## 1
Amino acid sequence: MHRLLAAFALAASAAQVPVPAPQAPTGPRPQGGNYGEAQGTSLDGLNLAPESCEGDHVIVKGRLDLLEPGTYWLLSDGNARALLLGAYGTDSREFDRMVGTWVEVRGICRPIKRKEYVYDKDVDLLKFPDLPPLPAPGGGRPNVSITVFSLFDVAGPGRAGPGAATAIIATVLNDPPAFVGVSVRLVGLFRGRNLFGDLPAESQRNASDWVLKEGENALWVTGKAPKGKGWSLDPSYKGDAVRWLAVEGKVEVVSGVAYLRASKVILTRDPRTGPAESH
């Protein structure tokens, strides 16, 4: 493989041919399964030896900031930095909602280096056909990247102490096994006892389970009723399905279906309009 790539590079040095924007490959796309188990590391370590991390499945924390709107984001911890880009199928809105927060990301590390092409094919696509190609160096970009499979909010320097990490429902559903046993805080729209058919009816485990939805993504909440001090929602009444809830608990996966076993349910507002909450 290395000899083949070396020959490709020699052929490319004679004439580099620009390629059109890459299209996502068809068929199922692995979410880390082809790269082995994810290993925790630090941004400092990735910055010290970006070439040696190529293809590593990593878990790393840092502050998330916007680098290039809708395309690239920046993960930083002190002077250490990494460019973030989403794997095929990820939603850029997930990144944008967490800009300015301390996050944990899981994905594939690759160095950012001079672009090479083989005939009309980006060498990135030859090495990693299941991942989007990387940008060229320059423009203030870091020298290392992480193609992100999942990310969620975590407690960072100067922030509140340990507790449930704020996640996005889509992120949890993208890789449920990665969240099993993890304490998370999900914010979504109350959908009652699956009153709108957001989930397959047969996936409900208990008669008291109810649905939490954010965007196009939904999951079952189990173990705690949608009520608190001075308020209560009726899982059988569609009129209550206009209320937003923040639910804390731990993720469970049964027969491939994700459930949130709730420990706390908080009445809140649409996160686009304000943060007020009522326990």
## 2
Amino acid sequence: MRSEFVQSLARGLDVIQAFGPDRPELTISEVAKHTGLTRAVARRFLLTLTELGHVETDGRRFRLRPKVLDLGYAYLSSQPWWQVAQPRLEAAAATLRESCSVAMLDGTDIVYVARVPATRIMTINLNIGTRLPAHATSLGRVILAALEESALCDYFAMADRTVFTKRTITSEAELRVACAQVAEQGYSLVDQELENGLRSLAVPLRNRVGKVIAAINVGTHAARTTKAEMLQQFLPVLRNTADAICRDMNR
């Protein structure tokens, strides 16, 4: 497989990924530093991306252009559930008056692929494309709970299980117990493990053959909603939303 690897394509993607929230504009030297490329190679990639319309420059500094979103949209639009998920997610957020999201597992992180914000309950600004560690999120726990044993072992071998609060579960043994419980009960309730004050509840999103392909969740502030209230009031709405998305997908 390595003989088929196209290094130039990989380098071009590295250049695009050098930009981010903390680095909206970069010089050639800065791109070279963040990608490990030589300055000459970084310059060629930046000029190529500029010619293709993915990057723009004032002659010294470079920044991404909206066209780069086409790369991510191509993925989302290729997912059979994505176009039907958003209106269902909006309805759930309106009913619960809280933020609702859909995420998928990518490596050891979850990636937000749909989101309807209601109130700002986190210091992290969550948008489509935001990555968070799977172990400390309800979305991640739901997806991890559905993995086959070999895939779960691979996850534990790779994951950097960061401690975010005093409640964060990081040990493999404890996470395995938590995932087993999630698999049995069909939902994950994570209480202030990612951020103090944040509680989140998630359920699986399944395809037509019952395989978990993503997870849908709702987040709330711990001072506003108890865990019991989340299970009584939020869980039925989330489950109905996930079922509706699955039905819409299979029409």
